[in-house]
Structure prediction request, 478 residues.
Amino acid sequence: MAADFRAHPYQELAVEWMLNNERCALWAGMGMGKTVSSLNMLDACFNVLGEDRPALVLGPKRVARGVWTREQKKWNHLAGLEVVPIIGNEKQRLAALRADAPIKTINYENLPWLVDQCKSARKWPWDKVIADESTRLKNFRLKQGGARAQALGQVAHTRHVRRWVNLTGTPAPNGLVDLWGQTWFLDQGERLGRSFSAFESRWFAWQRNPHASGAERHEIKRIILPYAEEQIHARLDDICLTLDPKDWFDLQDPIEREVLVELPAKARRMYREMEREMFTTLSDGESVEAAARGAAVMKCMQIANGCVYHDQSDRDPAKAAVVHGAKLEALESIISEANGMPVLVSYFFKTDLRMLKQHFKQGVEFTDDQQVEDDWNAGKIPLMFIHPQSAGHGLDLQHGSNILVFYSDWWDAEAHAQVIERIGPMRQLQAGYDRPVFIYYLVAEGTVDHALRARYSGKMSTQGALMDYMNRTRRGLT
Prediction:
């Protein structure tokens, strides 16, 4: 049943901003109602300003399929603002494309198809485009880059598109370098440079690792120049509105706890051999070898978690070797301390999921099935395993719990933040729960897990954390 909507002051500010700035970005913290604010903006376009051409919303698949339709149906004042997803097989997408509706949504993966369809029809009908989770456009380049953003770039600055809004809560998850591609869709490079190379050469530099040796002495990393951050922010100030939840709500930061896990002696020996020699032997005599330093780091991460592939070509989790269960034991303790409260567990490798499912029979793997999400939020699932790639935008899990455990992790800052926000403080507040959010990190002592923690504690970039870890390894400090 639809409800009456009452806007927060910051949502009124957001709507006014989008109406007054035809091409702009709204950087609002997760859970602040970017979707309903955007729908309110479109409602004003159609019913107050008299704009009659429809709007297109771009988003990750889950968002395009259901988030916007559910939000529209949630509020009484949006009853006449039908949202039609262009989702499914080609026959279903074509039918949705022909439907008469003021708003349509599509996932980023289908953008090349959509642009081709519009070329064939010689018509791009949408003069309002909203790029939900616009970081999906960060890799756009004028002469290269992702096919989806490239396809979208063909129409973004034509006479057919009048309004363009970028929506995200994490505009630069991996650093300011992420901003050029997204901003190009707003101003065609006017503020940050007409090309990515111009942007990069103005505010970044490349630097060799002074501690590297051997083949790695040729490795270089991008660094941001001292004055860049201030200048970039100043150039974007007139088209980007930032709304931080802490400016509007009395939010308590998540309570983070690092749980140190000691590897058994055999596992530690294997880890050290892989770390230094890129080769180790399992207890059954089978060998594990890494072809390059990057592969060695990945295998070190697997060993730290307790299960490792024999080689990169065979990715069958059932054939991977279990080397220890230290992290499983640590997770057992956390579950016990939760005293019946459901626990959400984030993992990265399929081998991690294999171990988790074998050890915790009560655990359920999160899937794209809506029933799983509903059962979790209804308290019917005591333990759920979720991969960051499936824990993205438009997923609300705050009703199920306020406890998250990172069994394992990866270097993607945006995915890391998205997992947290599924049950994060803003989500808890929205749902009416007055309870803190607990986040546990299982960290195998003396392993690359520490580099990951440095990455997400805000201390270092991905490359910086890895470089520091590898340097410490060479000097025997880990």
Residues 9-245 form a domain with the Rossmann fold fold (CATH 3.40.50.10810). The chain has a mean pLDDT of 87. The two ends are 58 Å apart (CA to CA).
